[in-house]
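3.2 Worked example (two chains)
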Amino acid sequence: MFRILVASAKGGVGKTTIATTLAGHYALAGKRTALIDADPQGSSLSWCGKRQVDVGRVLAVDGTRRNAPQRIPEKAQRVVIDAPAGAMPRDLSGFIDIADAMVVPVLPSVLDMEATVRFLNALADVPRVASGKLPVGLVANRLKPRTQASQQVVEQLSQWPVALVAHLRDTQAYVLLSGLGKCLFDYHSESVRDHQKDWEPLLQWLRRIRKRG
């Protein structure tokens, strides 16, 4: 079992999009996949409920209930945890204790980056993070690759002490796919493949962590 916690100190950064896309990818790859929605908004649960597919089904788990980490199916091979929006590390201790990797999305704005700095500073005091047992990776989300502003953000994030593991471009495709219970990896058109390539560095980073463990 490999467990990925997707968390951020700020809402609206694409946390659920990353969680559902990862879950969809793993399920389509033939892995028994569970998606734990610990966010009271229930967006990941809603996505799972809309996911009417023959291949790539994702098991939904309500993570807002008591003892949510103990509700993970024993036979699950991949588990993606969608943390509550705006939760700080102290609020996530139950999930941090069981996670094998942690993904932190950040948007290219001053407010989002400041919130992420506070989140990462608090994470640094978590023993599993400080010891390296829980790797943490940043994902720069909703970038406009050809703009100077996005390029400056990527350069700044690259200098942070936490690894920048992926750059995801801004696109309305995620909004449309979410409403259908789909993810990028459900499709194979040329335009979608360009967006799928954005995910490969993140997937490679997660593969390295899984093999190391």
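3.2.1 Second chain
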Amino acid sequence: MALTADNALLDGGRLLPLVEDFYTIQGEGYHAGKAAYFIRLGGCDVGCRWCDAKYTWNPRLYPPTPIDTVVERAVACAAQAIVITGGEPLIYPLGPLTAQLRERGLEIFLETSGTHPFSGAFDWVCLSPKRQQPPLDEAYERAHELKVIVESQADFAWAERNAARVGTACRLYLQPEWSVAEVVMPAVVDYVKAHPQWNVSIQTHKYMHIP
């Protein structure tokens, strides 16, 4: 499977390369602490060197799975919120999946780098822009939350360039990159204190030792 949406192979989005789906607690950003059912899709062409889900990058490892199966598992748990993540989920046509989830009355949150055109309907879009492959224009327009990963001082300027492109109601988050979190956290704290339009996002699920 190529890193593009092959409608013939995916039956227009009724099949998707599922890495895993599971019930957990959202660990990051605006919805941190909220119970949610995660649907993680395989395939990513952004390639962040510090990615903690590199196992998702090759979609050929994950045979297309019927979305009916995934939706039934999602509605069987107590979660009222669904997080669609990856990999990069917007590689694929998400309209059929989000339509079925909405029919079942679930909130739908998307986590994306914004590097592919949007498909599907979402109640919340978390945009996490990556310097090596910046988001498309429409991603900035759709973002409810901007989450920028910080691994060095230079990332604050990158964060501000992205913040200038999102809507005024978009929530702004700076998240220390996990492998250097202890080193960069003081700088993140100082930056947010000096620029209170930003918030700190911490990967709380890693402290809780949950997926």
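3.3 Remarks
Residues 181-194 form the longest helix (14 residues).
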